Sequence to fold (119 residues):
Amino acid sequence: MNDEKDLRARTKMFARRIIRLYVALPKNNAVTQVLGKRALRAGTSGGANYREAYRARSKPEFISKIGDCLKEADESLYWMELLVDENFVPLRRLQPLLDEADELLAILTTVSKRSKGLP
Fold:
């Protein structure tokens, strides 16, 4: 149970960090705003989906919501990579958040596989 609560807190903290990233992006650049909004949507959605998974009424519902979490974590990683690749945000500034996204993906992948009975 503590691991589940820790992951709830961790996904929420990830969302808060994504919010701070978005707020710090330049408002006068249309591309950064589009990419930032996409990262904001995906990065905040993962935690909400994990909360839904945590309260799932059935195993299939849990598996489905964890799949949504995985999708959103991977998508947020994609948008952040684009922000770095296009030199809108320096890699050194975003690296800790990219690392956290990678770690969340790894954890959620393990949760998904175990819930499906996969090795």
User: Anything to note?
Assistant: The mean pLDDT is 94.
